[in-house]
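TASK: fixed-backbone design
INPUT:
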């Protein structure tokens, strides 16, 4: 409270009315897949806003002062000040607006292709809840995979058709106001329409009715060109913050037999196309299937009844695959990189 003294006569001090400080709402999402930025400190001016902020983590929405410039610094997780920060940005927020800020890109001088510079991408029309109540979920889509092409997002289970058209790296697509159902999202190359991967988006199963979420393309389409760091996937940032929620591939690869899985090893991984399958268990697996990220089977192999055998995958192009090994009614799935 500020007081004004009567002058020159003196007398009781008069209280000046308090003026509210204008604020905006802000959420920060860490989506930089560069290992050098796996954990960072986020500074607001000279104070730490987020300490040891981890990759694929979101802050909750918080109040930030609007109408005045402030500096956001992204620094090493051991930082004690903003000197030598990885990046610094100056923002002026508008009062009563809601912002989603995504940290993305590469800070390392080598080991990544393309080495897209680290940046903060800002969406200035964010939401914390659905605009239309509890029966809908508002979905903001963000392309955050540095080496993935421009993509389309198609819904294939209803099917609802194309939801997002030709979104490029670092771009947001405005909110999709969807009925709270379970969907399958196909990510396709926008130029060739070739599917890259399909993911389950279980909005109803996750009880996201009435929510507003951000779905991020995260990680690398080709980890072998990017220091073997995290592979491409779709992840959900909730308004409450916390670890991003992964969306599973829209195949049965998650439904595997643990005992069979422990008995199987495939090496080397990454591989140049020649791999060895070893098995240490009862009986023997009957067959092997190689699937691309879209869940399509690109090679099938009938296995021999031996504990170790070589598999030739030289005809497959470089990239990420899933190898499904089948034994009776059980199966195990291993991720394999061909470089």
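OUTPUT:
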């Amino acid at each position: 409270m500020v007081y004004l003294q009567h002058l020159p006569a003196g007398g009781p001090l008069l209280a000046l009315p308090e003026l509210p400080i204008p604020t905006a709402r802000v959420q920060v999402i860490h989506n930089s897949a560069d290992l050098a930025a796996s954990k960072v400190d986020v500074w607001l001016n000279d104070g730490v806003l987020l300490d040891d902020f981890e990759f694929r983590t979101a802050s909750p929405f918080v109040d930030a002062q609007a109408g005045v410039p402030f500096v956001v610094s992204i620094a090493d997780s051991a930082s004690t000040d903003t000197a030598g920060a990885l990046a610094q940005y100056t923002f002026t927020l508008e009062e009563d607006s809601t912002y989603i800020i995504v940290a993305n890109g590469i800070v390392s001088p080598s080991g990544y292709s393309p080495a897209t510079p680290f940046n903060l991408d800002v969406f200035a029309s964010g939401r914390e809840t659905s605009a239309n109540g509890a029966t809908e979920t508002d979905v903001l889509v963000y392309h955050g995979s540095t080496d993935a092409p421009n993509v389309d997002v198609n819904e294939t289970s209803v099917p609802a058709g194309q939801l997002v058209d030709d979104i490029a790296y670092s771009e947001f697509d405005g909110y999709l106001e969807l009925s709270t159902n379970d969907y399958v999202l196909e990510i396709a190359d926008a130029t060739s329409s070739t599917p890259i991967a399909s993911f389950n988006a279980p909005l109803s199963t996750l009880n996201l009715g009435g929510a507003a979420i951000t779905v991020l393309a995260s990680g690398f389409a080709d980890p072998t060109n990017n220091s073997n760091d995290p592979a491409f996937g779709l992840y959900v940032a909730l308004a409450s913050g916390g670890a991003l929620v992964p969306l599973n591939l829209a195949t049965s690869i998650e439904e595997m037999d643990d005992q069979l899985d422990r008995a199987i090893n495939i090496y080397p991984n990454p591989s140049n196309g020649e791999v060895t399958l070893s098995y240490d268990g009862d009986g023997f697996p009957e067959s092997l299937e190689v699937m691309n990220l879209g869940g399509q089977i690109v090679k099938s192999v009938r296995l021999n009844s031996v504990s170790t055998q070589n598999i030739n995958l030289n005809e497959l192009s470089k990239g990420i695959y899933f190898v499904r090994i089948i034994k009776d009614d059980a199966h195990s799935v291993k991720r394999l990189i061909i470089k």
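COMMENT: The CA atoms of residues 1 and 19 lie 10 Å apart.
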